[in-house]
Amino acid sequence: MIDVKVKTFLTLMEEKSTIQCAEVLHITQPAVTQHIRALEKEYEVKLFKKEGRCLVPTEKAMEFYRMAKQLTTMEKHIHLSMQKQPAIPLYYGATKSIAETILPSLTFSMLQEYQGRKFKLLVQNTKRLLEELEEGNLHFALIEGNVNHRRYVCKTLLNTKFICVCKKNGKYANCTNLHELIKAPLLLREEGSGSRDILEHTLHSFDVDIEDFTICHEFESVSLILSLVQQDAGITFIYEEAARNYIEQGILQPLLPDMFSIERQFTFVALPAMPFTEDNEKMYVFLKEKLKNVSSVMDI
């Protein structure tokens, strides 16, 4: 069990108020103050400072928060490990690009391999999935965005390409340079998504921002974006796997392939040194092997 003082500290960091912290924990404000002072004395650091009426965490507090948060995550994982069940439920996440491309076949293989085990999938953007990992609500996540490799265990599942596409022979099919491309409506994912982050970094390498496009439309659905591109509503940047069938069928076509054919990875992401580390390693090996079979069929 986590020390009550650490729980108080974590709650205070999240609530940003001793009043709110006390209400959440059902203790008094003086008790909150006592717990924080006890931690400061024990670790010989200053965790908070007063700025007017605001309580502001110090750099040491931010460092302590990141480490203490891992304790709560580990506690959740230990609790799950100790459950008297023949098969522990598997909680995993995937970004939307992965969920709509390689995940259906992988999930079928998982269900076949681990019969009797309960699966629960969360499909969200990269930012949200990493938050859920930190909270201990996921065992692992399949992500295509940028991830801090020093903070997480990151293993490559698949190398893929990030490309720009439009309707085959549509209004924007004759774009031959970036200056012409930014005149087309841009259909893109919401902020926080891995593909949005990659797109922004890619455009910055050409000294271009998303705002430089004539107009931008944001959608949280990969399938909706693809449908709109097929109807010639604009262009989009997407993983090759998501658009592969449409390109092969002559419905969509790549744009400026010499500029936008960026090698990226679909990544298996987990927290280090957790009770499920061994299980995660086995799952990664299993998915990697299954993905080889899928990739050979798709000629990825």
Automatic annotation (TrEMBL):
Q: Where is the HTH lysR-type domain?
A: 1-58
User: Any transmembrane segments, and where?
Assistant: none
**SUPFAM superfamilies, A to Z:** Periplasmic binding protein-like II, Winged helix' DNA-binding domain
Q: Which PROSITE patterns does this chain map to?
A: HTH_LYSR (PS50931)
**GO MF, one example:** transcription cis-regulatory region binding
Keywords, in A-Z order: DNA-binding, Transcription, Transcription regulation
One short Pfam name that applies is HTH_1
Question: Can the keyword Transcription be found in this entry's annotation?
Answer: yes
Record family assignment = Belongs to the LysR transcriptional regulatory family.
Protein name (record): LysR family transcriptional regulator
